[in-house]
Amino acid sequence: MKLRFVNCCARQWLCILVSFVMLGGAHQAFAQGVAVVLYTQGDTFIDRAGVLESLSVGATVPEGALLKTGPEGHLYLRLADDGFLVLRPKTVVRIPLYLPVPEHPSQSAFQLELVQGVARAITGKVAEQAKERFRFNTPLAAIGVKGTDFVVSVTSGATFIMVNAGAVVASQFTADCTRAGLGPCSSDTATTLSASKDLLLSITASHLGAKTLDIRANPAYKHMMPDIIAPPASHEDSLPGKRTDRSSLTDSILSRDESLISTANLLPAPVVPPVAVASVVPKMSEQQIFWGRWAPVANLGPGTDLAEFVKGLEPLGISWPSYVVARQNDALVMPGAGVVHFGLSAFEAGFYLDNNAGAAVAAQITNPTLSVDFGKKTFVTQFSLDGGGYTGNFVAMGNLVRNGVFEANAGRSNMTLAGGLAGSPADQAAYIFSGRVGPQVIGAGGTFWRKRN
I need a labelling partner for 34 at 20 to 30 A (CA). Which of 80, 108, 283, 360 fits? Predict the structure, then answer.
């Protein structure tokens, strides 16, 4: 059966969906939001399975993201634990893993990778408490930190590192220092560099170990400095060196989202008792916004017919491992003001073990809340997820965009979601979600809500 859509936008969405299905592992790679875009200049992109999408201020960046900048591109990211990552022109960075666990920092895991170009990293609150779990890789070197602000450049056959604050421990990859590891390496080739304007750490393919270069003693080394290879934009100097600082740049960007803080008082909404797991998506005649799962999953039952599910609907998003959400095209009228609370009407959820879509245990959603402030165009949702001996508390808050679509703020959410509102006047909601509860366990599912007040 061929998939049929009513507009070009839906066809473009299908192309992205098919790419995710064919690539398999890409479901996991783009499951978790770990950063938010603070500033862009020139061309800045996220690479989704070979398709470049432009980035704008406020966009969320998922775990596993491959980020790129053009010849004049500068990209500033605020990481989930209030760290910062800066990409300068002609740079490629990957975020394989970024999992801060504030309550138990030792359970955190951080991996950043500079593929080419120049990048600056400032460790966040949790990373500073879990330095043994933070790793910044290049094609040649493993870089660990000691509560640090540092700049790295990758050229053909060489890695150069300068430290603005704190210290780094860098080593070539060896049998004792693998690319998959976390934290500083303790191999014989590991070298520590503390903050200095005059010292540069050099790691090359042709030399065993790292060299510390003294720029003052030999000015010829100056051309190897990352800040010379790709100078910072003027805004970069205003990035805070400590998590308690706020620059004018950060303030000006974050001020747009300050309303989310006041919206947080909506979280303690009336408690809704656990709802039985929904094995079948409600009939379309009973609602105007839907979620579904097109692939069978162990312990969660069969999937739906994707072709029939999306026919005639406006797709809103997809989520790992195989969830999709869509709504009727002209079925939304949003109020201009007021706060509305929603009650959970149906859901399906599970814990996926070892990041494996085929290994899942069913889970129950308890204490669910969803509140929408139509005047401020913001939303807040939270719930607990329990099953198979696992538990997780999830929260997401963000903005209403594109006619009632949810857009979560990565810095204030510990799960990603896709979905939005439907009905007249906006009396229904649905979203699909995905979020980590540990390095090898992901909670995911779909939810349908109805207006409570």
Answer: 360
